[in-house]
Amino acid sequence: MKTRYDIILHLFEKEEKRREDLMNRIKLYISLFTFYLGAVAFSLKDIGEALGENPHWWQVGFWIITLIILLIPFWIVISALRKKHNYLNQLATIVENEEEATEDQFLQSRISDMVTVHEHNVNVNDEISEMLGKSLKALYGGMIFSFILLVILVVN
What we know:
This protein has one domain. Helices cover 86% and strands 0% of the residues. The protein has helices at 2-42, 44-51, 57-81, 91-97, 103-155. The protein is rod-shaped. The model has no long low-confidence stretch (mean pLDDT 80).
């Protein structure tokens, strides 16, 4: 029984480490998006001057589409940050509820708890990982659109 507990504890801790890594990636992505959106916001005056007093409708539309594409990955990352992980019960609660249980019953109960939490957290971590991949693709798309807009403005 102790060996099963150790194996499941190892898997549980490994998934917790993965969750920490994903949270660090989320922080990095938020920093990147904030930096890029800040750079775009500071260049709005320059872009307005480049468009002139009477910009073509397609130039304004292209710029609006670019801003929307840049906001999508930020929204996706914030949504990923809000995903809820399950945690094991507090130790005091476990000990109070299991005072008369035998060692094997106690370990079996903890194994069940860890397996349930582990399965939920694996699914949540997979969702977060997918969301971060999508947000990075959307950021690349927004950067490409903004680069194309910049080239169009320079050419005109």
